[in-house]
Amino acid sequence: MQSMGPRTPASKTSILAVMDENRKRLGFGRDNTFVATPNVRNPAMMVEAEAFSHHLDKFERAVREYHKRVQGCVRGLLPLLDSNLPRVWLSVDEASGLAEPLRPSISHGHPSRVGGEYDMDAMNRYLDRLDRGIQEDVLLPLRRWQEGLAVAKVRALHEFLVYNVIRFLVLLLLLPQRLHASAAGGCGPTDHRTL
């Protein structure tokens, strides 16, 4: 590998020529009128989206809690519906102490079952449908919105970084011009905000 020696004045001239060509191609003239400005609407929209996201998070937690409680209530109700009512014992003969159970009649097919003729399989299908509906129709769209916001945050960060890198490159492009102007005793722009 050959070592590069000190730059010759010809190489300095060619670098300045390339820099001037790049300035012209990018629309930066020697007059320093270019002012890089950030897109100020994006941060404002991001602030509002963040606030809305906070409300969505709270709502999602509330929906999950509500769903959990409904599932717990109904799942706890199923064994009750499938159980038999306690029997009432009637005394047949007080002297002998004999008693016989009196069967309550709730329905013809299941006379003593609390739920009567309810269909446990149908109830489980309805609970599964409720579970799918909450997951697919409520929670999934909420999650997708939050994922979209996460993507927007990454893009906003990317735009911020690109803006600052471009701004840095513009400063680098204009730095030789400023150095040249100050070395020649001219007064170049001194306000960094004009860059």
Please name the defining characteristics of this protein.
single chain; 195 residues; mainly alpha; two-stranded antiparallel ribbon; rod-shaped; disordered C terminus
Can I get a quick summary?
The chain has 195 residues and is mostly helical. Helix content is 64%, strand content 6%.
Fold blueprint:
Layout: H1 9-26, H2 41-82, E1 88-93, E2 98-102, H3 120-183
Antiparallel strand pairs: 1-2
Poorly predicted runs are 191-195
Shape: rod-shaped
- Quickly count the helices: 3
Give the N-terminus to C-terminus distance in angstroms: 39 Å
Residue share in helix: 55-70%
Rg, Cα atoms, Å: 39 Å
Beta strands, count = 2
Lateral strand order in the biggest sheet: 1-2
The structural class is mainly alpha
Order of helices and strands: HHEEH
Molecular structure report:
With 195 residues, this protein is mainly alpha-helical. It is built from three helices and two strands, in the order ααββα. The chain has helices spanning 9-26, 41-82, 120-183, and strands spanning 88-93, 98-102. It has a two-stranded antiparallel sheet. Helix 2 (41-82) runs antiparallel to helix 3 (120-183).
